[in-house]
Amino acid sequence: MPAISPVLADRAALSGPVSGATFLAALAGALSSADVPYPRPGSDVATIRRFFRGNRGSARVSAAGQLVSAAALGRFAVSVVRLAGAAGPGSRGLRTAAAAGGATAVASLAASGLCTAALTTDRAESDERAVALHRRAFLAGGVVHGAGFGLLVGALGVAGGRTGVLPRGVARAAVGSAAAGLLAPLYLVAESAAWFIPAGRFSGLLVTGFAGVRLARGVRGPAR
Questions:
Q1: Counting C-beta atoms within 10 Å of the first and last residue's C-beta, which end of the chain has fewer, N or C?
Q2: Is the pLDDT of residue 84 over 60?
Q3: In degrees, to the nearest 5, what angle opens at C-alpha 22 toward C-alphas 94 and 106?
Q4: What is the mean pLDDT of the chain?
Q5: What is the 3-state secondary structure (H, E, C) of 62-111?
Q6: To the nearest whole percent, how much of the chain has pLDDT over 90?
């Protein structure tokens, strides 16, 4: 079995838990301050307007949280790509997967945040535009982000397991989370598959939070 090189401390990897905490805080703040539930995918225009026009502040908190979370996630993806490069055989493929997944996850989450913000402005004046922006926000922040984030978390799980950054159980959990995220696009075929989106998102946030702390500390040898 080849020796595992120490993983040097990467303080910037704390951007992983920061990204997750920002997203969750903004989500909780937006939902708790609004006087109506967040519109579900496929909601009619009246339901969409009640939230985004009647609760502009709450919607903008959600949009800002997504944008800040996307920025932090982008920095964390750099740490994952770096970790993947130390994963031994197959590291080139892992680096590519981490980079592609990270770029997709960041771009889609930012796009969702921008669409969410636009729904609170005159850009959503027409009924057709309001419905289209709401659907784009969901597809970008749910379906596309789920797949990109899943690919990033999967690369993190494999690289983290090989380098010892993640204990075996956490590495396996990362792969399971990645599978759920990568299956998020099945929603486009069957709406019953929508549960893959939160399953991949929230389990992935736990993994990236844990991994970010481990990477920030550095690892001297294989995790058990």
A1: N
A2: yes
A3: 35
A4: 93
A5: HHHHHHHHHHHHHHHHHHHHHHHCCCCCCHHHHHHHHHHHHHHHHHHHHH
A6: 92
